[in-house]
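User: I'm curious what two different proteins look like when written out as structure tokens. Can you demonstrate?

Assistant: Sure. I'll show them one after the other, since each token string lines up with its own sequence. Here's the first protein:
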Amino acid sequence: MPTDKLEELNSADDERAVALVGPLIERAPEIAAAVARLRPFDSKDDLVQGIRDELRKLNATARVELFNAHPELAPENPLAMTDMSQAEQGRMDLTGDDNAYRARITDLNTRYRAKFAFPFITALVRHSDMESVLTEFEGRLANDHQEELENALEQVIMVSASRARALFGGGAGPEASGTAEVHDHRVRAWGGEIGGAILFAISIIFIIGGLQLGLGSPLRLGTGAFPFLTGLILAGLSVVVCIYEMRGREGLAEKPDWMGFLAIIGALAVFAATADRFGLMPAAFLAVVVASLPDRNLPLAGKAVLGGVVATASWVLFIEMLNLPFKAFAVM
């Protein structure tokens, strides 16, 4: 029998695989079965990504059903929780009758469920003490329903990720991780700011390049107008990304998606290298396909269709409407 847990999952039959994945996702056997069908997993991070992808597919109704399978904080009958939930809540002493926060939590649970129709869910592994939990709880009560559908799903993803890394990564479980796990989460939370900084650097390159090529006049735009305007748009987006991340929406940050960043940079390089040689439409098509390569939810045919739509829109906007000096197809 394989000694490595991930190897065991990869080589298990369907029934055993679902049994291994099941504890990672609170009382959601259908999701566990869908994740198990994604085998083999190259690493625990690949498993975590598979869980994230399957949970992200859920519509609003399915999300609420998933959330309602999760226990409230400090439930009246802690033994009704799964073993992993008991361990996670036990670290905060939420399974004991004499918890000093019980009355306050009961009130918050009642108000939250009355407003959103599902229990408050937070990844306790992110919190070092109950005051941190209660601060998040009270803050999220002010959100609207759509915001909490997103927030709760992100928390479920983080709970599942923590369990997966504990069970399949050989480390300590969430009940023993304490402050170290909180610190690790905060380090990963810089991923959004890093992405914004990279995007801002790229925008500066576009702006400088556009100025060097010449902007022309409002009635007859120069060859630098397009990269200059693109740079301004990218710069604005990068600022928005950084501001959004620095506001500290607790629990929504994830590990930087370096493959996504590299794909975007690669797409820009492809566009720059092919626009003059092949024309605007082929360059836009190739750039979109390259940028979408990391998206495992979109099949290759879908990437091609998306590329065709963007290429056509680029021709209509930049050539037909703005009359920029681009050729739809370069003459070879």
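Here's a second, unrelated protein for contrast:
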Amino acid sequence: MDIIARQGLTDMGTTTDNLSDKSSGKKADANTASNTLINVGISACLLGQPVRYNGGHSRSKLCLNEHNRYFNYRSFCPEVAAGFGTPRPTLRLVGDLKAPRLVFSDDQSKDVTAQLNQAIEPVMDSLADLDGYILMKNSPSCGLERIKVYNDNGNPMTDKTRGLFTTALQQRYPSLPIEEEARLNDARLRENFLLRVFSHHQFRQQVDSQLSLKALMHFHRDYKYVLMAHHQREYRALGQLLAQTQRGCDLSGVRNQYHHRFMAALSKPASRENHCNVLLHILGYLKRSVESSVRQEMVGLINRYRRGEVNLATPMTLLDHYVQRFGGDYIRSQRYLQPYPAELGLNNLL
């Protein structure tokens, strides 16, 4: 831990009082297979650490007050890890858009790109157990998008790029859910990010804990309607991939292909229309166990959601109630109805 701390990486689950429930002495139930906190990386300034160029921070109430019941934050500031100091002159990207150089804004003759990359590289291997990463916006090191690159004349280019740390992170872990903290204020983007984080965690718990073709097939079965809500064609294609996989073969390649394509399929929020189609599909499993008048009531709620009159939680909560009471094992196992803890209230915002 001492070596990691010197590199700027901190396990916030063990060093910050805000991130544990000290009243009960127990971790919050994250509705995951292991009921443990999920490891999520985060820009250190978002946890209130004074690592910004001006010696300040960008403490995120959303991350600390709402998500901390479920996440064990692992914070990192690449600029501090690189030894740039706090406070420090602002940094900017200059030169080639595809391979920009990092310089201080008050002395662009000094290229510090290699210094930052040397600080990032030793940390990368320690991020393998993360299920998500939350980044600071507008940072030449941590920004996810819209980062300016300046010409030699000092004017910014029209096209923009990602921060250098973010680029390295995405290259090493292309399937890792990544989002900027500011974008989490958008309800659909926040729901999509948290869905991907919990799904990424569930895959590692359910499949990677004991890799087998059976485990992959069971995961695909459980996430059938999650996939259908986001990408119906990819749901069918991934099913074919598993069906064509021979028993006894080396599964590592199949696992990697499935995982990458699964996470890519979830990368954009599901449409209202797709949610309605999935809800109606699930309702079909209750046609023999729930009376017609109740089913018609649920159809009416689904159509009201389609028209934008109620939020997604309204038909989904009622449908889940009847599925849990009268549905068979198959439909009750579907993660679509409970892809993340209900206490997050995400479907109330959709």
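A detail about the second structure: Confidence is low (pLDDT under 50) at residues 1-8, 12-34.
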